[in-house]
Amino acid sequence: MSTNKLIRGNDVDSRLVQIVPITPKLLAMDRAEAQTATVPPELAAYQPQPYRIGAGDTLYITVWDHPELTSPAGPQQATLANGRLVRSDGTLFYPYVGELKVAGMTIEQLRAAITEKLTKYIQNPQIDVNVVGYASQFITIKGAFIKTDPQPVTAVPLTLEQAIGVASINLADADLSGLVLTRDGQNYTINLDALDNGSAVIPRIYLKPGDQVYLPYNDRHEAYVMGEVNRPLAILFKTSDLTLTQVLGKAGGLNQTSAKGNAVYVIRGVKDLQKEPATVYQLDARSPEAFVLADQFKIKPGDVVFVGPASVTRWNRFISQILPLTSVLSNAAVSDYYINPTK
């Protein structure tokens, strides 16, 4: 059971902070939440649509048994040289067919339209249409990737995993837990760790023309270790698997002479304290069980891990602050004696 309190000197204010002990029950609830996490239904439900031709695409139109229509530049030329470019207004000219408005058509719709037109001149024409140059629709790639070139949308459906594989993640600088997919003006956050470790149910996500994929850098996502540890520091996030044990280990562990074993806190703030309280998780590190709990407690970006001082530490610090003052007073008294020996 959690208790709500904020320690301000000797005062308690439950409106701003709630203190929650780190217990097996708390960890079980966190694991259950992670295992049931899914991507937004809109992304999971989307299925790729047939490719629609756009301005800038290059088409290769085959009319079987009629090489003069199929390869006007000559069969010895490359396929692309015999391709037909869709003009900026979305139109295409083809012999015996004339000008066609092809932008927005599927490949099958264009094949049927050309077949219908050529039937007047060729008996039972056999037509095939292929896109040999995709230049009208793209997926935008930004952030902590090695390759951020736009990726073309093709007749073969593209998944998020495939796009990420082509872009290649910059593992040294990326925050794998915060990928953002922007679609139709809506942002969707996806934890890439779940794709790798299976901690969440993530279905295959297909991309659609105009999607933007952004992977943030980890330079703004840090956890901070303060208080009675051997090496206070800030830790950059790369994944969401950073545990309290790892954080304390990177900080060199608790200071054995000054740390208070039951005063290990993880301070997790909120955007607006007026609407909801911040949470402070407390670990009692005096028992062996605490190390098991700490190894399963996940740290999040922005968390502050604070280890409080023991009572003797506070006393020693008080003495260390008083001693310099007493030395100054003693030196002043000695100086006064030599200056005024008759006093």
From TrEMBL:
<comment type="similarity">
    <text>Belongs to the BexD/CtrA/VexA family.</text>
</comment>
<dbReference type="Pfam" id="PF02563">
    <property type="entry name" value="Poly_export"/>
</dbReference>
<keyword id="KW-0564">Palmitate</keyword>
<dbReference type="InterPro" id="IPR049712">
    <property type="entry name" value="Poly_export"/>
</dbReference>
<keyword id="KW-0406">Ion transport</keyword>
<keyword id="KW-0762">Sugar transport</keyword>
<keyword id="KW-0812">Transmembrane</keyword>
<feature type="domain" description="SLBB">
    <location>
        <begin position="139"/>
        <end position="214"/>
    </location>
</feature>
<keyword id="KW-0449">Lipoprotein</keyword>
<keyword id="KW-0732">Signal</keyword>
<keyword id="KW-1134">Transmembrane beta strand</keyword>
<keyword id="KW-0625">Polysaccharide transport</keyword>
<dbReference type="Pfam" id="PF22461">
    <property type="entry name" value="SLBB_2"/>
</dbReference>
<keyword id="KW-0472">Membrane</keyword>
<keyword id="KW-0813">Transport</keyword>
<dbReference type="InterPro" id="IPR003715">
    <property type="entry name" value="Poly_export_N"/>
</dbReference>
<keyword id="KW-0626">Porin</keyword>
<protein>
    <submittedName>
        <fullName>Polysaccharide biosynthesis/export family protein</fullName>
    </submittedName>
</protein>
<dbReference type="InterPro" id="IPR054765">
    <property type="entry name" value="SLBB_dom"/>
</dbReference>
<keyword id="KW-0998">Cell outer membrane</keyword>
<feature type="domain" description="SLBB">
    <location>
        <begin position="223"/>
        <end position="307"/>
    </location>
</feature>
<feature type="domain" description="Polysaccharide export protein N-terminal">
    <location>
        <begin position="47"/>
        <end position="131"/>
    </location>
</feature>
